[in-house]
Design goal:
- The complex is a heterodimer of chains A (345) and B (489).
- Chain A is built from 14 helices and 13 strands.
- Chain A is of the alpha/beta class.
- Chain A has a 5-stranded parallel sheet. A two-stranded parallel sheet of chain A has the order 2-11. A two-stranded antiparallel sheet of chain A has the order 4-5.
- In chain A, strand 7 (144-147) and strand 8 (150-153) form a beta hairpin.
- Among the domains of chain B are: 5-154, no CATH class; 256-358; 393-417 and 432-489, no CATH class.
- Chain B has 20 helices and no strands.
- Chain B has helices at 5-43, 45-48, 50-73, 78-88, 94-102, 109-124, 143-154, 169-195, 233-236, 241-247, 250-256, 264-285, 295-312, 321-332, 336-358, 360-364, 366-378, 411-415, 451-467, 473-488.
- The longest helix of chain B has 39 residues, at 5-43.
- Chain B is elongated, with a radius of gyration of 46 Å.
- The chains are: A alpha/beta (345), B mainly alpha (489).
- Chains A and B meet through helix 1 and helix 9 of A and helix 1, helix 4, helix 5 and helix 6 of B.
Chain lengths: 345, 489
């Protein structure tokens, strides 16, 4: 080693604090939310990676409650927008209104919409028209909104959590691909198991006073986001991430057979970023200083499932995107030399 | 990529393990191929003598040794070894990441923490084998060539084949003799029959001598152009393209004389049936009344008739398969007379079928006329259902039931309430032409052109069309038979 360790202690402390804060946050959410450990984990990964998360699940599974609880655990402002077909972009972003000052002069003043919050819950986002949905686009990507030619920065950290219902498709507007790509993760919320359901019944049908503590502030979240980006990744792990993302493209000459058969469009480079950032958060949340192959494997599903567009055959055969991603990851591992017989080469 | 000594030591240890496993793997593979190669000198034991044993042993050892050496010397980058160390010790890529990032200029402060962490974990690891042993597929089959080698070593030397080919000439002569013996009697009888050709025969039922096609040297009739293709010196001559370009081939010039051409199509379609006739005739004609029929020849003939019956596919009265089976059964039972009778019956059925085939009326019928017959039998349909030209009525003047020589208009035309055809009076004077679909008063006018007068003209056109290959091959026979049927009317 050319350079001696400079501030090992401080780095280790930072990582330890990260782990502690992460655990504390999980514990606070766990006070309200029963089960869904993987969902909570992936939402927190999204928070610390600096991305936005789309939660998909049938009604009544606690998606909105999870987000509200998370917002309560953080010392951050929280806004909730219930998306409806008659919702207008101005209802989200805000609008210019005419105000009168002390001298009775009238002028336009920008009235901020609910998007100006740290944590934004876009409930049933697929019920609004595409025009309204696209009002979120700039804010999600740029961290600012432009109204009447003037840009208004959003508070930092800015974290959008959207929910959508996959079964009631009548009268909905499925999110366009460009907007889906803006979400770092798409998390599927599934039905609770038997024990979890029993716990939900016990918790919600008895008199119970639960108080959620605020365990993290905005600046702490931002600091943790910076730490995440410092985590090193080995070249063979990074190669695996690239193989996974390229493996979703049917045009790629080494794409697996399932990709060629069922996928029309694969993941964008944003998908690779999401994969690696998510893997870094997972690594540091486990107290590790490096990204491993297992991290990529764990993050592949939430990072890629909403970025794959199936072709007609895939739609017709009802191909499960999660299974498809699993096959792509396996294929990528064998391509990147992670197979069992690697030592024989 | 120098790293912390602990990590280097750990990776070095793993690299040694990998080399050992590779040497084992490729050594086993080399052993298999060496054992396979060792079989060769043992096979050549007769000529190599003692050296065959020495060669086999050398090949065996060399195969295993070369494989092991190759495995040991295979390229092994440190990063690869580090990855395997991570996997073997479940270190979640700590070692490989630490070694890679330790020297990178863009390393972040957290890399130092990573290296420290990796070193601490490596220190805690005890020395153990983490690289699993892999056995090649060939290893399962190593005992086979080894066992074969041992057997060959213990067995007496294998005599090697001599360096010349076996002489097949004797056996070929024998084969020819056998063939001659089998078919000689029947062919001789056929040839005798061929020489006694009936001089006066109708042109359309003329039986051609097919014996030359079977390889015999039958004689040709004078004036028969088919002979040119059979047994003249011209037929056996090799094609000379230069002379062909200058003056043309005589055979091709013959082909231009269309009306003298032999009926090759007829020969092809009827040759087998005719052959059976010939054979049957020869069998009966050559027999001395006191001499018994050879059962082998009779069986051969019956077999051939049975095959023809299957090929013809006919069922019902025209099928002679039943008679043939009866004859074969009789032959099995040693009753030659009964078999002969059955053969005669089958032969007469064949003949009658052949005659029907030449009959013009059957041409018009076939399946179509059968269907009509069935409908008539079931009492369905009226006269109009029989189409434009029911059998025995219509075209020929004076033969139809109708007062009109052309027959009544079809039901289809009569059924239409709107008469859209030609109407009016025919012009005065001599009338020519035939117009079968004329309606109104014109329909009452008989044809003035003699039917038989134009038939020859159309026949010539037909023959020319067939000669120019304007009629598809599959329909040529049908067209010819149609004209033949017109003749018979």
């Amino acid at each position: 080693m050319a350079q001696p360790p400079v501030s090992n202690q401080s780095q280790e402390q930072r990582v330890a604090e990260f782990v502690k804060a992460h655990e504390a946050l999980r514990a606070e959410v766990g006070k309200i939310i029963v089960g869904h450990a993987d969902v909570v984990g992936q939402v927190l990964v999204g928070l610390f990676a600096g991305g936005h998360v789309l939660l998909e699940g049938v009604p009544g599974l606690g998606k909105t409650l999870l987000i509200k609880t998370l917002a309560e655990s953080l010392e951050l402002s929280f806004s909730r927008i219930q998306f409806t077909p008659d919702l207008m972009p101005g209802d989200i972003i805000g609008t210019n209104i005419i105000v009168e000052d002390a001298q009775a002069r009238k002028h336009f003043q920008f009235q901020r919409g609910p998007i100006f919050g740290h944590i934004l819950l876009a409930d049933e986002v697929n019920r609004a028209t595409p025009k309204t949905q696209s009002a979120l686009l700039e804010g999600m990507q740029e961290g600012a909104v432009t109204v009447s030619g003037s840009a208004h920065p959003l508070p930092s950290p800015f974290f959008v959590l959207a929910t959508q219902n996959p079964i009631e498709m009548e009268g909905t507007y499925p999110l366009p691909e460009a907007q889906l790509d803006r979400f770092l993760f798409k998390v599927r919320v599934r039905y609770p198991a038997l024990e979890e359901l029993n716990e939900i019944i016990d918790r919600t049908t008895h008199v119970r006073d639960v108080e959620v503590r605020r365990v993290l502030t905005g600046p702490q979240v931002l600091s943790m986001r910076e730490l995440v980006r410092e985590i090193p990744i080995a070249s063979h792990v990074r190669d695996l991430a690239s193989f996974i993302v390229l493996g979703t493209h049917p045009q790629w000459e080494r794409a697996p057979e399932a990709t060629r058969r069922f996928i029309r469009y694969g993941a964008s480079p944003r998908g690779a970023q999401a994969l690696v950032l998510g893997a870094k958060v997972r690594a540091i949340a486990e107290g590790r200083f490096n990204v491993s192959v297992e991290d990529l494997r764990a993050m592949a599903l939430p990072a890629l499932r909403h970025r794959l567009i199936l072709n007609f055959e895939g739609e017709a055969e009802g191909v499960d995107v999660d299974e498809l991603v699993g096959q792509i990851v396996e294929s990528a591992e064998s391509m990147s030399g992670s197979g069992k017989e690697v030592f024989l080469r | 990529m120098p790293g912390p000594p602990v990590l280097d030591r750990l990776v070095g240890d793993v690299a040694r393990q990998i080399r050992l496993r590779r040497a084992e793997f490729y050594g086993l593979r080399g052993l298999f191929w060496g054992a396979v190669a060792a079989v060769v000198p043992l096979v050549l034991k007769e000529s190599l003598g003692f050296w065959s044993y020495a060669g086999a042993a050398i090949l065996l050892i060399a195969g295993a040794g070369a494989g092991a050496l190759r495995g040991f010397l295979l390229k092994l980058p440190q990063a690869e070894a580090a990855r395997l160390a991570d996997r073997g010790y479940a270190l979640q890529d700590r070692i490989s990441t630490a070694l890679e990032w330790a020297e990178r200029p863009d390393r972040t402060p957290i890399v130092d923490a990573l290296v420290t962490d990796a070193v601490a974990r490596a220190d805690q690891l005890g020395a153990r084998r983490i690289i699993p042993r892999r056995v090649p597929r060939e290893a399962k089959f190593v005992p086979l060539p080894l066992l074969l080698g041992l057997v060959l070593a213990a067995a007496p030397p294998i005599p090697l084949p001599q360096g010349r080919l076996p002489n097949f000439s004797v056996s070929r002569d024998e084969d020819e003799e056998k063939v001659k013996d089998r078919s000689g009697d029947l062919k001789q009888a056929e040839r005798r029959q061929a020489t006694r050709r009936d001089a006066v025969q109708r042109a359309d039922v003329q039986e051609r001598d097919l014996a030359p096609r079977l390889g015999g040297g039958g004689q040709s009739q004078p004036g028969d152009l088919a002979a040119i293709f059979k047994d003249t010196s011209l037929g056996g001559r090799a094609p000379d393209f230069s002379s062909f370009l200058k003056k043309g081939d005589e055979r091709l010039r013959m082909l231009e004389q269309l009306d003298r051409l032999p009926d090759l199509q007829s020969d092809f379609t009827q040759s087998q049936t005719r052959m059976v006739f010939q054979k049957a005739k020869a069998l009966r004609g050559g027999l001395d009344p006191n001499k018994k029929v050879s059962p082998e020849k009779l069986r051969e003939l019956l077999n051939e008739m049975e095959r023809l019956g299957r090929k013809g596919g006919g069922a019902g009265q025209g099928n002679w398969s039943g008679d043939v089976y009866e004859g074969m059964e009789a032959l099995e039972g040693g009753q030659s007379d009964r078999a002969m009778e059955a053969m005669e019956r089958a032969l007469s059925k064949m003949r009658s079928r052949e005659e029907r085939g030449r009959d013009g009326k059957s041409l018009k019928g076939g399946r179509e006329s059968d269907r009509r017959g069935n409908r008539r039998g079931q009492g369905q349909g009226g006269p109009g259902d029989e189409g434009d030209f029911p059998e025995g009525e219509g075209l020929l003047p004076g033969r139809g039931k109708s007062g009109s020589p052309k027959g009544d208009p079809t039901a289809r035309l009569r059924g239409s309430p709107f008469d859209v055809g030609v109407e009016g009076e025919s012009r005065p004077g001599r009338k020519q032409g035939i117009d079968t679909n004329m309606l109104g008063r014109g329909a009452q006018m008989p044809s003035r052109m003699q039917y038989m007068g134009v038939l020859g003209q159309y026949r010539k056109m037909m023959e020319e069309s067939i000669a120019r290959e304007q009629v598809p091959r599959d329909f040529q026979t049908q067209v010819k038979e149609y004209f033949q049927s017109l003749d018979e009317k």
